Amino acid sequence: MMKVAYDHQAFVLQKFGGISRYFTKLVVNSTEDLVSSRVFAPRHQNQYLKDLPREMVVGDYTPSFLPKSWRIYDIYNHVASRKAIASWRPDIIHETYYSQITTRKNKYPVVLTVFDMIHEIFADQISRFDRTKKLKRAAVDRADHVICISENTKRDLIDLYGISDDKISVIHLGFDAFPQRAQDEMFFDQHNPYILYVGLREGYKNFMRMIEAVASSTSMCKDFNVVAFGGPPFSRTELARFYSLGFSEGQIKHVVGSDDLLASFYKKASLFVYP
Q1: How far lies 11's CA from each of 31, 40, 151, 264, in Å?
Q2: Residues 139 and 163 sit within 8 Å (Cβ to Cβ)
Q3: First and final C-alpha spacing in the chain
Q4: Contact, 35 vs 4, CB < 8 A?
Q5: How far is CA 94 from CA 10, 25, 66, 79, 115, in A?
Q6: Neighbours of 201 (CB within 10 A)
Q7: Using CA atoms, how far apart are residues 155 and 135, in angstroms rounded to an integer?
Q8: 24 vs 118: CA distance, rounded Å
């Protein structure tokens, strides 16, 4: 039986999110008679791992990390999982994000998934303190094989990094059907329609530009609320900008929660915006 180990990175970074969801689904759907998959995340904050069978996760859930302590948890997980992975003796290690060093202790083949090349192509929109581009390069160079989620990402990777074509496979993303049941819990008056935004709100995501577009329409700003589902709570800067644009307090609401709750918001939204 082939044994595939997934490292801790995505599950330390994210409570919810597309990357950790992707790897969780890989674990669940690749475990058959010929494959045994296991996540090594000694101390993680990821909600999706709670839904996996206990034998598939080496590690414990922590509801919330201490403020500004992510690097400490990352270092701890790297050291602890490296030993645990070596003891399990996998055939393949699938690294779940980008790091300077690998968790492999022996010469196990390493696979890496690259989702996009945003940090390279839109470098002018990324903080100069962001190390993602440097860490990604190290991880790609170190990997024995790279999975790209699209032909476009593969071309970008080849053009920007000079990676050999035969080192890359394109495997497109799948999807999950949302539950048919939908929660009734709503945060706004049912008679006041809302616009739905889902995901992180970093600069290149253009969330604030979407908010400015709503504010530019007197009728939309008056008649619609906005739900931002997922990502961190609003910052003081974001809240101040909402106020300056003329939104009333609570008109733009941040929500996090389960797939059931997200399905409810999708179902009842007047408009879903993906800028």
Answers
A1: 19, 9, 26, 25
A2: no
A3: 44
A4: yes
A5: 11, 13, 27, 17, 14
A6: 19
A7: 20
A8: 23
- Residues 245/212, Cβ–Cβ less than 8 Å: yes
Looking at 2-80, which runs of residues are DSSP E strands? 2-6, 35-44, 57-61
Residue type, 199: G
Chain-centroid distance of CA 29 in Å reads 18
Q: Give the C-alpha distances (Å, rounded to integers) separating 171 from 58, 148, 207, 210.
A: 27, 6, 29, 31
Query: pLDDT by residue for the chain (275 residues), tens digit each?
Result: 899 999 999 999 888 888 999 999 999 888 677 899 999 999 999 989 988 999 999 999 988 788 778 788 888 999 999 989 999 999 999 999 999 888 777 788 999 999 999 999 999 888 888 999 999 999 999 999 999 999 999 999 999 999 999 999 999 998 877 766 655 555 555 567 999 999 989 888 899 999 999 999 999 998 999 999 988 899 999 999 999 999 999 999 999 888 888 888 998 999 999 98
Contact 15, 233 (CB under 8 A): no
For the chain, counts of helices (H) and of strands (E): 10, 11
Say what the pTM is.
Answer: 0.83
Q: Are 108 and 92 in contact (CB under 8 A)?
A: yes
The tokens describing 33, both together, are 């008679």
